[in-house]
Structures are given as structure tokens and as C-alpha cells.
Amino acid sequence: MFSAQGPSLRELAMQALSSVERGYDLLAPKFDHTPFRTPDGILDATADALGSLGPFGEGLDVCCGTGAGMRVLRPLCQGRITGVDFSAGMLAQARKAHPDAEWVRADVRDLPFDEAFDLAVSFGALGHFLPAERPALFSGVYRALRPGGLFAFPIGAPQPITSGWYWALLGFDLAMRARNAVWRPPFVMYYRTCPLHAVRDDLTAAGFTVTTVPLTLLGRREDGSPRYRLVLARRPGTSD
């Protein structure tokens, strides 16, 4: 799963026994050489689906990490593109890789923006928030968008119970819950706490109008349903 340039088992253990922020600070220099970095295929499928909805003005990557989401924002946005994350280590790597973008260190549960962006995206971040924390996250994104602005992120279909991935993800979540029950600070990273129906409900409660589109470039499951959907949460209204 890891290239020769990726973290060692010892480094991963140190990350897992840290807080989320400290863990990602430690992992940042080698993050792009791990499977945790969003694959280019998902980024490209997202950009393709958003292409017909743009162009956009200013763009924001929420929980930007090392800046992989710039691959989506740069061709779609005509104005500035910005990444926000609370890991100083991840932002340092992002600045090196994308010096033309703006980078802001902040807790995304309290975003420091007010009607500043036309498009917001996020990749692989929802598992870092407990369900009770999602309303603050989504409300902050809502405030950060101008009227008519769009918040978009891919979400995978649930794995069937017959799939090995179902049991692998279940086992990971159970291991993380056990770790957090006996070790402080907690490391919040779960794969099964953000099903589409719950995410849709939280986005709607924050004021968004929510639709989804299949990411057809990523294929379909055996039953014909898409492997991934793109959630499109729009802030009602029209920009001046």
C-alpha cells in the first residue's frame, strides 16, 4: 500500500498515537506517498462532473491537506484559489507544491470566511469529524460561500456485506474506537460515520439545497449503481 518514499511502520504508529493535528504534522512530508492522499482518478472525475456547472470565481478546498484539491479548483476557477487546514505541516507541503494558491491555517469547524467563495470542495475529510461536529463544519462552509455558491465533494457507495472492504473498514473503525477509549488525545478517523443520507440531512439543516450526480468515470458496482456520487450542496440565492 505504501511506496518506498512513504512512512515507516514506526512513523505510522507515532501518527496514530497522536492527535489528529499532530499526527498529520508528522505525516505531512510523506503524505503524498500514502494511499490516504485522494487518488487522481477521484479528483479528475470530480473536475469532469463540475465542468458543466462552471466556470466559477473564487474556490476553496476545505481540509486541503497537501493541496491535491488544487487539481480540481485550478481549471474551474477564474479567481483566487485557497486551501484551509489546521495542520501546519500539511500546509507547509501545500505551499511548496502550489505557490500560486493561498493557504490559511484554521479549524474548519469555525471557518474564518464570510461570503468569499463561489465553489468549495473537500476530499476525504468527513471521517475526521464526529457526526455531532458536521453541523458546525457545514454551517461554516455555507457562510464562506456567496449566495448561489456550490459545495461539492465525492462520497463512496457503501460496501456490500459480502465485500472484503466492508469488513476491513468495519474493523478499522472498531480499532479506532478502541484506541480512543483508552488513549488520549483522540485520533478521529472513521470510515462509517458519514453515510449519504446523514450527510444530506446535515447539509439541508445548514441551509443548502442538495442533489447528487453519479461519477460515471469511476465505474459502477455489480448491481449497476455508481461506485461514487458527487454531492452538490448549493447555497440558495444569486450572487450580485
Automatic annotation (TrEMBL):
InterPro entries: Methyltransf_25 (IPR041698), SAM-dependent_MTases_sf (IPR029063)
Pfam families from the UniProt entry: Methyltransf_25
Molecular function, one GO term: methyltransferase activity
This protein's record includes keyword Methyltransferase: yes
Biological process per Gene Ontology, one example term: methylation
Keywords from the named record: Methyltransferase, Transferase
Residues annotated as domain Methyltransferase: 60-149
Official protein name in the record: Class I SAM-dependent methyltransferase
